[in-house]
Request: fold
Amino acid sequence: MRPSRRQSSHPWWNQLQQFQSEMNRLFDQWGGPGSSLTGVAAFPALNVWEEGEHVYVEAELPGVDFKDLEIYVTGGNQLTLKGERKQLTPEKGVWHRQERNFGSFVRTVTLPFPVDPGKVEARLENGVLQLQLAKHESARPRKIQVKAE
Reply:
């Protein structure tokens, strides 16, 4: 009897099919209907860029009150945003869809260079946190003066 396309006599092919089946089962379990991982990205979403002597960070934080937000710079180049987005509870309504996450969050990112934790400006406007962090002296370019002899 000749093996079908779905069933091969090669042991490596059978192992590969078994591996694929197991991975599909895991993805279905973690990303299937009702899963909390479906389409979830890191929260809050961030943009980070460098310009001149500063690094800038924007974080999308709709529904977060500035009183519920903490910002830390540790280790010279670790930025941590910690806070809570409180859940809106309709008084007499019934939820039909709830895609926005609520509750406590912590997001830590490694910045591309050390920053001065004493020179950080933060502003929360229209649900967007804007940070301006000054480069640490050790990360700033230094002009080296050449001496002629």
Q: What stands out?
A: Residues 47-88+102-139 form a domain with the Immunoglobulin-like fold (CATH 2.60.40.790). The first helix runs from residue 11 to 31.
